[in-house]
Amino acid sequence: MTWADLLAFMPHPTPLSLLIAALVILSIPLILHTIVYRHTSATLPTFLLIGPSGAGKTSLTTLLEQGRPSATHTSQTPLVVEVSLPVKTPLASSRFRSPNDPTWEVTKKLLIQDTPGHGKLRHYVFDSLSKSQNLHGIIFLVDAADLSSTGADAGEGLRQAAEYLHDVLLLLQKRITSSKTAKSPQEMPLLVMANKLDLFTALPAPLARTVLEKEITKTRSNKGKGLLDSGIDDENAGEEREWLGEGGGVPFEFSQMEEMAVPVKVVGGNVMGPDGSDVHHLWEWLGSVL
Question: Please, what sign has the CA dihedral across residues 276, 119, 258, 172?
């Protein structure tokens, strides 16, 4: 039997069957793309962006997402955006990976979750710290000019930032102190970024670190004293106040959080300003975590 005889026995396709076959062939890549995209978006590493109101969080979110900042208003609800790291940003997890690896581009993407900074809306932050999936780190943005001791509201911005940061660090510390298993929790890096360094009164990163550590020490002491004044006896005071960092009256330092699997780094930057944006320290930190 020849090939011509075999072809003679084969059914001839109708226009309808050809149309159906073409639709199936064209739809398969679209379906696969949708499945892969949803899976990737659900598993992208997430970074929580927090900080006092007015620090520039939403402007920073816009800058990271679109490449340029924009004027914004005070946020009332959380906002999640997908961000791509700059091409030249090194990744800690990609030191031995070939650039031809098909997962390379996926690992260069992440999610930034912007949160409201107003005191009455910070429950979004504390809920996210315990519920966010694939949370890889926290960015605490603060106005570097608010940390200085000059101006009409001298000390108020520093106090608010220190109290907020104190509560966040204490919550992260509880992951270990309240753990009922021997398994250590996942490391949760935290970056403190002093924004608006273009302003004359802004404190550079080393000074911002120092004043925040001193103010957190004061905040920790005031919170402990408040509990004792409320009538809690000495025997139960230690359990109630859950002292941040080392005890025994030792001044608080960010380095103490490393024992709690919370490495803290303080950098400077500028989201908006006359000379443009400068957030390269933030990009480098994100790459070092991924």
Answer: negative
Measured CA to CA, the distance from residue 283 to residue 55 in angstroms comes to: 18
Residue 66 sits at the vertex; the CA angle it makes with 52 and 109, to the nearest 5 degrees, is 90
According to DSSP H, which parts of the chain are helical? 3-9, 15-43, 57-66, 104-107, 123-131, 156-177, 205-229, 234-241, 280-289
- Identify the helix (H) or strand (E) that includes residue 135: strand 135-143
How many Cα atoms sit within 13 Å of 83 on the Cβ side?
Answer: 28
- Between vectors from CA 184 to CA 178 and to CA 189, what angle results, nearest 5°? 95
Tokens of 8: 């003679």
For residue 207 the two structure tokens come to: 């000074």
Q: Cα separation of 210 and 109, whole Å?
A: 33
Q: How confident is the model at residue 45 (pLDDT cuts 50, 70, 90)?
A: very high
For the CA atoms of 237, 240, 242, 247, the dihedral, rounded to the nearest 10 degrees, stands at 0
Maximum distance among all alpha carbons in the chain? Answer: 102
Measured between its terminal Cα atoms, the distance across the chain in Å is 63
The DSSP bridge pattern shows strands 109-114 and 79-84 to be: antiparallel
Nearest CA-CA partner of 282 in 74, 164, 78, 141: 141
Number of alpha carbons in the 13 Å side-chain half-sphere of residue 68: 2
pLDDT above 70: residue 17: no
Q: How far is it, in rounded angstroms, from Cα 212 to Cα 25? A: 60
Q: Tell whether the model's pLDDT for residue 92 goes beyond 70.
A: yes
